[in-house]
Amino acid sequence: MKLAILTSGGDSAGMNAVVRAVVKAGILKGCETWVVREGYEGLVRGNTEAAPKSEPSKTSQNLPANYRNTNINLIQNLRFGDGDLLKDGTGDFIGGRTIKGRYIVRVGFDDVRGWFAEGGTLIGTARSKTFRTREGRLAAAYNLVKEGIDALVVCGGDGSLTGADVFRAEWPELITALHAEGRISKEQAEAHSHLKIVGLVGSIDNDMSMTDLTIGAPTALHRICEAIDNINSTAASHSRAFVLEVMGRHCGWLALLAGVSGGADFIFIPERPPPHDTWEDEMCACIHRHREIGKRKTLVIIAEGAIDSNLNPIHADYVKDVLTDRLGLDTRVTTLGHTQRGGRPVAYDRVLPTLQGVEAVEALLESTPDTPSYMIGVQENKIIRVPLMEAVAMTRAVATAIEAKDFDKAMSLRDPEFKE
Ligand code: ATP
């Protein structure tokens, strides 16, 4: 099997560990391994330049051939930013840096050495408009067949996994079209009649259904906790209140768990909108009580997508004004923004992608035209496979339920055992 991996959508810590695990597990199980740079955009653009010749590194010279670095120069340049890093041939400059003319790159064992400890995604990610079109996916299919790749691992959010499913469903028709256009031979069409696809969820929001934890969420939570610890020093010294806005979109997981681990006084999450006409009283009464029993600092956490029961967004600046005006607290707003995404993955964002990466390769090796595309998840601490589209459909249903104000439905879709 020739397998390729790409990272797509928003970056998250642990994506590099996924790439490392998939490449290493793939090689150990006898596969040829490739990375696709810049997400689906790289698949669409493919390779317009021949692979440069590169010497195996000293450390890999004694290894079997496919354990060696095959692209050590390319990958090292990608990491350290010298040499071949040029503007892309088309004039676009996606993902910061690109290697001229090659988006689908063969990699060996050494190429991904130590990647578990690196933040973000070293192979780049992008949001590709072209891949949303049939023409784009036709080009992507051609580029994969050209390199002989028959299996794809996609690590991204629900959008990326939807794209993966669309691609696989359309694949037979794309192959027929490429053959009819004379771009691929009959032998190539026959050898590539089935595309094996598996998805891994890389997202800091932890908003995917049918899995307990997404890759990157533990690190984002850890970053928020560190920020709270820093804020607490000044809050306690000056007896201040802080209103902290955290990421998470429709999902309150980051806000809720940060609140629990950082000792917040009040937390706003999208799944439990407070009554629009009484939440200010409720919040002030709660914080007043805490102050009366001697707390010198106050922390209110607001999830990015927090709303009241009338679906009005709850803004940090408004909460700050309420605390200042009604309780007389010296209140500051801190929006953590992208610091939550960045930095080295915490231990669990190395362990989870490693276990899931190995499972992804096994799922690909067992894939047949009759098996569904799987998403690799984790439930009750066990690595599991679930049908990718079921997980995506469920995630969408949760978002729709929240938009429709049906919060109990949203919660029970996320957790079938949920009770009010
Ligand atoms: P995040 O959770 O960080 O937003 P995501 O994976 O949900 O990540 P999206 O921007 O929704 O991010 O999707 C990433 C890419 O996946 C898109 O730019 C597009 O190339 C591809 N994609 C998404 N939906 C589809 C679709 N329906 N058909 C084809 N491709 C799609």
From TrEMBL:
Binding annotation for Mg(2+): D158
Keywords per UniProt: Allosteric enzyme, ATP-binding, Cytoplasm, Glycolysis, Kinase, Magnesium, Metal-binding, Nucleotide-binding, Transferase
Phosphofructokinase domain residues: 2-52, 105-364
Catalyzed reactions per annotation: beta-D-fructose 6-phosphate + ATP = beta-D-fructose 1,6-bisphosphate + ADP + H(+)
EC number: 2.7.1.11
Required cofactor(s): Mg(2+)
Binding residues annotated for substrate, in chain numbering: S203, I204, D205, R240, M247, G248, R249, E304, R332, H338, T339, Q340, R341
Residues that hold ATP according to the record: G10, R127, S128, G157, D158, G159, S160
Cellular component GO terms held in the UniProt record: 6-phosphofructokinase complex; mitochondrion
Active site: D205
Pathway: Carbohydrate degradation; glycolysis; D-glyceraldehyde 3-phosphate and glycerone phosphate from D-glucose: step 3/4
Any GO BP annotation: fructose 1,6-bisphosphate metabolic process
GO molecular function annotation: 6-phosphofructokinase activity; AMP binding; ATP binding; fructose-6-phosphate binding; identical protein binding; metal ion binding; monosaccharide binding
Main location: cytoplasm
Highest taxon in the source lineage: Eukaryota
Activity modulation comment: Allosterically activated by ADP, AMP, or fructose 2,6-bisphosphate, and allosterically inhibited by ATP or citrate.
Chain segments carrying region N-terminal catalytic PFK domain 1: 1-420
Cellular localisation: Cytoplasm
Assembly and interaction partners: Homotetramer.
Family, per entry: Belongs to the phosphofructokinase type A (PFKA) family. ATP-dependent PFK group I subfamily. Eukaryotic two domain clade 'E' sub-subfamily.
Protein purpose: Catalyzes the phosphorylation of D-fructose 6-phosphate to fructose 1,6-bisphosphate by ATP, the first committing step of glycolysis.
Full protein name: ATP-dependent 6-phosphofructokinase
